Amino acid sequence: AGEGSGPGPSDGAGPPAPERVLFPPTFSVSEIKNKQRRHFMFLRWKQQQRKEKLALKKKRRKEREALGDKAPPKAIPKTIENQRVYDETTVDPNDEEVAFDEATDEFAPYFNRQTVPKILITTSDRPRGRTVRFCEQLATVIPNSHVFYRRGLALKRIIPQCIARDFTDLIVINEDRKIPNGLVLSHLPDGPTAHFRMSSVRLRKEIKRKGKEPTEHVPEVILNNFTTRLGHSIGRMFAALFPHDPQFIGRQVATFHNQRDYIFFRFHRYIFKSEKKVGIQELGPRFTLKLRSLQKGTFDSKFGEYEWIHKRREMDTSRRKFHL
């Protein structure tokens, strides 16, 4: 062999070069009967796919570097979010009708600073330890909130007592098999009431690299991607849980991030490391909410009038259609 040529199979110098995996055009891994062999071949196929993708990415990067300023703009990858089906109820911030609705809805006294939020947090009957700890940690996130245990009382009896004691909101944490799985948020005294399915609950001790316990400062509130009329109402419900004037000295942020109709809650503390860099620590707890229904007035499961109910078979016909 001449200089520069790689060692062949018959070349005695060095180990043979690894052969590239070549599959026939009509090959299907599922046709392999042996389970172990099928799994092994699938892993080899995936590895080959990754190598080809990486090589193509490297080639494109070199082409862009060679073209310099003449390189075409990067293509925006298609995602479910940017391919979203248009919703006619999407809110325009400059819409006069929306501004009038905001000025006259149930949350207007809060946004006009006429009322101060006072929250009652309770549970389903006979809560277990995990649900109780979650309620206690939630009370440290939401200022001016108080945890009380149900003791067998029906919600219809609790709500008049809350109104008499000047509570502005009622939060009920439901559980199933010792795990929190539902949240009812009722704005007092006239509603509305939202019912959420809760999942992915993580208490503080379960969060890695968490910060120190939160302080009593009023946190900032961030609401992301609540774009439709329904989403706008839900966002205003969450905002009305926190006092209107955050204390920036505490550097604490409560975030409600809506993505594909799942609302992710996170609680962080931030610190400015320089003019351009910011460090954040998660304080916890964290959880995910999915809206099940929005009801006019306070909680009434029998005779309540519903503004919106999630019907899976009728509404979830397209993966690119979202309601919030």
Summary?
By secondary structure, the protein is α+β, with helices and mostly antiparallel strands.
Could you please describe the fold and organization of this structure?
The chain is of the alpha+beta class. It folds into 2 domains: 29-67; 87-316, Rossmann fold, CATH 3.40.50.10480. 26% of the residues lie in helices and 24% in strands. The protein has 7 helices and 11 strands. Strands 1, 2, 3, 4, 5, 6, 7, 8, 9, 10 and 11 form an 11-stranded mixed beta sheet that branches. Strand 4 (179-187) and strand 5 form a beta hairpin. The protein is globular, with a radius of gyration of 28 Å. The N and C termini lie far apart (67 Å).
Task: Compile the SSE list and pairings.
Elements: H1 35-67, H2 96-104, H3 108-111, E1 119-123, H4 129-141, E2 145-147, H5 155-164, E3 169-176, E4 179-187, E5 193-202, E6 220-224, H6 229-239, E7 252-259, E8 262-272, E9 278-282, E10 286-295, E11 306-309, H7 312-315
Parallel strand pairs: 1-2, 1-3, 6-7
Antiparallel strand pairs: 3-4, 4-5, 5-10, 7-8, 8-9, 8-10, 10-11
GO cellular component, one term: nucleolus
Subcellular location: Nucleus, Nucleolus
Organism: Nesospiza acunhae
Summary tags:
disordered N terminus, globular, 324 residues, single chain, Ribosome production factor 1, 26% helix, Brix, 7 helices, IMP4/RPF1, Rossmann fold, alpha+beta
